[in-house]
Amino acid sequence: MKDFKKKIKQLSKDFLPEIIQVRRQLHAHPELAFEEIKTGDIICAELDKAGIPYKRGIAKTGIVAIIQGKNPDKKTIGLRADMDALQISERTMTDFCSKNEGKMHACGHDVHMASMIGTAIILNQLKDSFEGSIKIIFQPSEEKYPGGAIQMIMEGVLENPKVSCMIGQHVHPSVDAGKLGFKHGKSMASTDEVYINVIGKGGHAATPELVIDPIVVASHIIIGLQQVVSRMATPTIPTVLSFGRIFANGKTNVIPDEVFIEGTFRTVDEAWRKSAHEKIVVIAKNIAEAYGATCKIFIDKGYPFLFNDENLTHRIMHYAEDYLGTQNVQEIDLRMTAEDFAYFSHTLPSCFYRLGVKNPESKEISNLHTPDFTVDESSLEAGMGFMAWTVINELGNDF
Question: What is the DSSP code string of 115-144?
């Protein structure tokens, strides 16, 4: 295995300049959920060049490639990279910044795809040296609910051949490039969208006694709902309820008839999630009624929490320490962000780990989902090489 590891590291180093260019090409042409046509063309061109067979059009714009080693039916491992970009106008001013106005790879999906292409090329070059198969999934629409993962699963992406486990990686802007972060068990939160329409009776702002002010009612609802987190949630169950949009079409002297509130609810426990939804509805309606108003509540149930299989994650973390050294592998905290890779994690044993992309010499952290998000592209060497190393080990090959 020592010589095999050396070979993977050398291939990763050799392919790094090429994979950086692929990443830059993907970054320059970001596309939103289920619109990833040019993105797919770039991916397929690289797969064609490497001679890796694939199918397009799964869950509309998804791509699945297969690499078969010797005795391909022995075991199949699934790898996933997401494809879509965000509705953000880029401010990085790099030579390869977004050419699509108002769209940007601000969550690192360009890195995920490029790294996966590198992993595929490495494994394809070594396929005569290992047993088993690898199913490489390029998934559309991670950023937009209901997401591409559940649709690909429903279309049979985990069958024929049947996948035994799923592995994915995501950039981590606060971890130095070349390092990896792991979280066993519950790793990321579920995510639900909360929509509340408060209906009162509008009128002149100078005669508040003649109106039922939906703005005041909405304010009390927002404050009252904080009790769901601070007083009703079990302290051991991480919970977030935040409101990011309040819209009332009034004026300085006009109280409107209604107010619209939009927010997100996140947790890592399905029973509490269901109970909390019920509490949100009851509290909002009771507060509105107490002030003579009414309200309509719609909770759009999104992705489940992401669960990293304990045994699989333990093994992959061990592979990481072997490949990169223990000093470059760390435990990370549970995150209240969400990921539709969670659907895979509730279907079969899965591990979703973090790839550090921070420039070690920089004091600034370039945060996800911001117009200034950047990565240290040297991270791609560790990203593609480590995933290839993980696959070889997880397939159970003994060299």
Answer: HHHHHHHHHHHTGGGSBSEEEEEEE--SSS
Measure the CA–CA gap between 217 and 292, rounded to whole angstroms: 9
Name the least confident of 97-101, 132-136, 208-212, 358-362.
358-362
Count of CB atoms within 10 A of residue 209's CB? 5
CATH 3.40.50.300 assigned to 2-189+304-394: no
Structure tokens at 53: 């067979």
Rounded to the nearest 10 degrees, what angle do helices 379-394 and 109-125 cross at? 50
Tell me which architecture the domain covering 192-301 has in CATH: 2-Layer Sandwich (3.30)
Closest CA to 282 of 228, 235, 239, 238: 228
Residue 187: strand, helix, or coil: strand
Residue 192 and residue 262 in contact, taking contact as beta carbons nearer than 8 Å: no
User: What is the number of other CB atoms lying within 10 angstroms of the CB of residue 87?
Assistant: 13
SS3 353: strand
Listing DSSP states for 11-28 in one string gives: HHHHHHHHHHHHHHHHHH
Question: What CA dihedral angle connects 151, 157, 163 and 166, to 10 degrees?
Answer: -50
Q: Encoding tokens for residue 314?
A: 């333990």
pLDDT in tens, 206-262: 999 999 999 999 999 999 999 999 999 999 999 999 999 999 999 999 999 999 999
Tell me the three state secondary structure of residue 86: strand
**Could you give the residue numbers annotated as active site?**
303, 377
Average pLDDT over residues 107-123: 98
Pairing relation of β-strands 180-182 and 350-358? antiparallel
Q: Residue 168 and residue 289: Cα distance in Å, rounded?
A: 47
Indicate the pTM of the whole model.
0.94
pLDDT tens across 304-334, in order?
999 999 999 999 999 999 999 999 999 999 9
Reported in sequence order, the residue ranges of the chain that DSSP labels E, i.e. its strands, are 54-58, 62-68, 76-82, 133-139, 165-176, 180-182, 185-188, 192-199, 203-204, 239-247, 254-255, 258-267, 294-301, 306-308, 329-331, 350-358
Fold matches, 2-189+304-394 and 192-301:
no
pLDDT digits (tens, 9 = 90+) for 58-114: 999 999 999 999 999 999 999 999 999 999 999 999 999 999 999 999 999 999 999
| Extents of the domains making up the chain | 2-189+304-394, 192-301
